[in-house]
Design a protein that fits this description.
The protein has 239 residues and is α/β, with parallel strands linked by helices. It is 34% helix and 19% strand. Helix 2 crosses helix 3. It is globular, with a radius of gyration of 16 Å.
């Protein structure tokens, strides 16, 4: 039986969002997993109940995280947030951590992981991050790699990628500023933006700033990332 992975629903049902949702589903299926779409919740008990049949959690991309969640007031450069997800996503993350499920955070999911552990974000990389020179919001062609990420040795990301330098796509205007307590930076862009974070010593708690679901199945690193995640979910379910 295929492992069932909880995939947080991104909420809106626009044509773009349906396509984005499909890419996550496709990547999980290609890695040998099934998925359960997780609707928004308002309590941790609801989140725990919805994760009952899941052996892992994927926190996908989406709108900006409300800066108030990391102790800042929104700036003019901040985009519209998703109030429902600002409530629901941390509840799913907390529930998954309590259940000791493997967790994969992608783009917004990576940023949420950092905020949950007490970190902060650049509300807009272009205005706030010193030394920034890359375009982190590619205009189109999400399946195209546009910059490099240096992967730190002795990390989960390195074990999955199998190399110290990888090419990635990019669709974000915010990024990790202060890294959350207990997190390790495992990937960093050419201009110093954090691209990968993880909880050292955990079986699988990983956040990546790019979108590997759009690069699957042609990109080997993206395939290995999802395959490694699904393998860990299978291992956990078998315990």
């Amino acid at each position: 039986m295929k492992p069932k992975i909880g995939l947080i629903d991104q909420g809106t049902d626009s044509l773009l969002r349906r396509y984005m949702r499909y890419r996550y589903q496709y990547a999980l299926k290609k890695a040998g997993a099934d998925f359960i779409m997780l609707k928004a919740v308002e309590t941790e008990d609801e989140a725990l109940a919805n994760l009952k049949e899941c052996c892992g959690l994927v926190i996908p991309g989406g709108p900006d995280i409300n800066p108030e969640l990391y102790g800042e007031q929104p700036k003019e450069s901040s985009h519209v947030s998703a109030p429902i997800r600002d409530i629901s996503d941390p509840l799913y993350l907390k529930a998954a951590l309590s259940l000791k499920l493997p967790i994969l955070g992608i783009c917004r999911g990576c940023q949420l992981l950092n905020v949950y552990y007490g970190g902060t974000l650049y509300q807009d990389i272009l205005q706030d991050a010193k030394g920034h020179h890359l375009t982190h919001m590619q205009p189109k062609g999400f399946r195209k790699k546009v910059h490099q990420v240096s992967v730190k040795p002795d990390t989960l990301l390195y074990r999955l990628a199998g190399r110290s330098m990888i090419g990635v796509n990019t669709m974000h205007h915010q990024g990790i500023h202060e890294v959350g307590k207990g997190l390790t930076v495992s990937g960093i862009s050419e201009d110093g933006i954090v691209e990968g974070i993880e909880v050292p010593g955990s079986e699988f708690i990983l956040g990546v700033q790019w979108h590997p679901e759009h690069l699957t199945p042609k990109d080997e690193v993206s395939k290995q990332l999802f395959a490694g995640f699904v393998t860990e979910c299978e291992r956990g379910a078998a315990k």
